[in-house]
Amino acid sequence: MLRMCFASLLFFTFGIYLFYPNVSFADTTFTSSSAIEKLALANNNVYTLDIASSPYFFTSGIFVSKNVTINVDPGVKIFLGQNRNIQFFNGTFNAIGTVENPITITSDGSYYGQLFFHSVNGDVTANLINVNLINGDWCSIVGKSKTVYKNVTINMCRTVPVSISLISGTDVTMDNVSYIRWNRNPVINTTFYMPIPSGFDNLHPVNVVIKNSTFVMDGSPIFRMVDQTKNTFDPTLVNIKINNNNFTGKVKNASPFQHVDTDSKKVIIDATNNYWGTSQGPYVNGSKDKTDGPVLPSNINFIPFLTESIITLPEIPPKIIKECCSSIMFFPGVEGSRLYKKDNLNPDGEDQLWEANYSSDIVELYGNSDGISQDGIYTRDVIERTNIFGENNTSYDIYKKIIDNLKSLKENKTIIDYLPVPYDWRENVDDIIKDGINLENDQKMDIVKELEILAENSDTGKVTIVAHSNGGLLSKALIHELEVQGKQDLVDKVVMVASPQIGTPDAIYALLHGLNFGFPSQIIAPQKYNRKLAENIEMTYSLLPSKKYFEMNTHPVFFDESISGSTNLYEKYGENIDSFSELKDFILGKLDSRINPDFDETSLPAVGNETLYNKAYDLHEILDNYNLPENIKLYKLSGTGIATNKAILYKDRKLLGKQIFTPYLIKSIYGDGTVLNKSSSVGVGENYYFDLYNYNLDNKTIFDHANIFEADPIINFINNIVGNKNEDVNYITTNSPDFDNLKSISIEMHSPVYMQIYDSDGNHTGTINGKDDDGNDVVSIEENIPNSKYEILGESVIITLSGDREYILKLDGYDEGEFTLNINNYVGDELTNSQNFENLPASADLLSEIKINTNGEITEMNLDTNGDGKMDLNIKSDGTIVDLNEVVEPEIIIPEPEPEPEPEPDPVRADDNDSLPASNGTGPVIIPEPVQQTGGFVFLPQFLNNPNPISVTTIPEPVVQEQITVQILEPEITQIVIKKPIAIAQVKKTIAKTNNKNVIIKKDKSVIVNKTSLKNSQTASAGDSLKWKFNLIDFIRKIFKRK
């Protein structure tokens, strides 16, 4: 949870990002923001920007804090530098032009600007008469000052034309102010933003007069008041007069005032003598007597009102329509927009819920059984670069390059404007279009309305939509709604990149097991939280394979008969899922009647939400069969060459002698790592394919579905389409590349063991241990090997790699148990070879380093069994186990003792808790009681480290002796007297089941067994290691049985 505290709007640092390719600044340039203040101080506190030196270019803006006067002559043009604005905290600013020679103040509107009048300790007076404010963001921010705007035109303001802070002492008059082509930012979405700051002192009145102006109603509020004092201000001190104005446009039932009556203390606003767009005038909210005019809160005095307009609108020159180029609306994909909520403990702060920094963030994103989220969650921005914090948590660029490219297209005048659209990706795309997008402070973004604004300002009068992943479904839903409203002509092109039009199997695995998909695997968000989130959000069901998906004769789920002993899935569904209805039955558990598994049991499939499934079905019935209108050209680009999940196989595997239900992933090379080409290329439109495989190898990059918009060919492809060009783009073709002979490797680990893999260049794919901002342990995923993918599914980890390359695989155990390692080799989509190392002993001390050759095979496996940094065992591909320490194979001669008859003892069975007394490793070991030797191998005490061979003589009959003498024959004789049973240490960790029980005694005091080759199989198995341990202890007991 990322906590961000925001101060009052007035205390932001404001700036503007500017670019003027067609303007010459040859006359006067100021590089210091305080330059004209210093000039004024040197000239009786007055300085004039005269027409003779115009235009003026202020590379650092203008900053005035002294009591000086700055005058601007008629006709002067002022251009502000990058991230710069005009700020007055004291003094006087007189920009007084004439009708014939107005003053122009301009920027490119990329960031805050252009005017800021606010007094802290001094007094500010600002007079703007006959002034044009062009291409700003927050075009004018007025605080504690005496400010007059008369005959002011605000053109192309991106966020808010005027923000008036209703702080004590503010005195503002707006007389005949016009707003032309206001390109709103939906976060504020109002003409006059009027916060009442917490610094309201209840001593000085606020006076705001707005008159002789025209406001066009388009469904958005004109005046928005926000109380930041928590109802502590005196409303009688706030004097707002809105008189003799003209309200036109869509006035019927419109709400020009927002939040002015939501506080317990209401400001009475004088809004008399206005024309409200109809001779009937407005009506009061809740009144039965409605009119054709707008609806007003009860604290607005609007009587008397004018029955006709008395104001003439300023003439706007007719728009010239060009062939190129259209403004752009951009839709990100799943999880590509940040989600927030207000911090209940800090009214000025907020919690970032996505990207999630804690599991609790994911919990707060859960929906209920109807898919409805908790209140108060909103979005604001598209994720250009991830901001998950903590040690080793590397940030990733997701949409930075595409956003930078759109900015560049605007700056070089290729397009007029662009709008990245953040949205709550948990929701159904149809609801997003029809209900709007939840923004901060209960604001809503209407995508249709925003597209209309983009089209109005566009050179072509149209908009090009660029969409990624789930954004493709959103764009189709938007076009469908535009066609319903008769507005389809507002769009000329749609570019869908990696869009799962008819679904993706990964959505199945996310819903049933919590598989991460669609977003970089930067932080291992626990599968159990991912699965619970997926269960009750509509996006999951919208991305499930639809009915049209199964028309391609594909099977996203398989069942192996081996699971019949643990579940009835095979019995109920057969070998595979081959229809939409059968998939729905399986996801909802209709035929097998399963219940949701425990929260932590992510290997077992969950049960889906039928209500949300049905709603998604209705959506796909529309979108899957919907063709865009003929006037809209559709481009579909598919990423390909990255191993992508196409199916899941459920089968049993052995673990500690038991059959364990396990999901396995089946891959296809024809996809981008998340979306298969058969889904992204379906339907009408022009298809293009981006060869991710070769692009990554050639450029040593790691692009896939999640960050595909960071690849240069994608940017070049989009610029071609936007610019009506027909240029070739490297690695992008109209025909799908042939990968039928392409080799790839899938490595599966089923165990309590971490996997890390390195290529020949030292690139790493695997986990990284780190800390979050609170010092908690977190595990990050790194995928730096080109075309690699790291996935977690249930109890398994899967790493996918390109073939024909050498790799080093390192294993690191983190718990006791057994592990199984599978190496699967593919050519195209065909599985050609598998190596399976099954039921090998694992422990928290286990380390291993494994070489994978260019054939995708393991020729040997080195194991460090005790974590001392030294490899102890070498396991060959045929299953042979070799000790890497200096070892001897003992031969033992036991002289025949004088026999003494004893009755045959009853056999004793050792259990898991049996133990044998251990030698102290020095001098003779005395056995106080007779020991029966029954034949077979004698296991020596671990302190025998002599490198010479030892011969063994087996006693053919039971004999009893008081002492047994063991002699090592060459080169010297060592006599050891044994008078108590011998302990065999570390049996649990080092003994594996084998067909040939040749004893090897190691210097580290452990006993291992040399394993025979499995010549006709690629499976090297340790068998049931616990059962073998029991047999071994039985065997020892029989040798050293106490009488």
Description:
This protein is α/β, with parallel strands linked by helices and 1043 residues long. Helix content is 14%, strand content 31%. It has 17 helices and 63 strands. β46 (764-771) and β47 (777-783) form a beta hairpin. α4 crosses α6 (470-484). The longest helix is centred in the middle third of the chain and has 15 residues, at 470-484. The two termini are 67 Å apart. InterPro entries: AB_hydrolase_fold, LACT/PDAT_acylTrfase.
Kindly report the oligomeric state of this protein. Answer: single chain
Q: Output the structural class.
A: alpha/beta
Termini separation (Å)? 67 Å
Uncertain runs with pLDDT below 50, 5 residues or more? 1-26, 907-1043
Approximate helicity band: 10-25%
Descriptive labels:
1043 residues, eight-stranded parallel beta sheet, single chain, 14-stranded parallel beta sheet, Lipoxygenase-1, alpha/beta, 63 strands, 14% helix
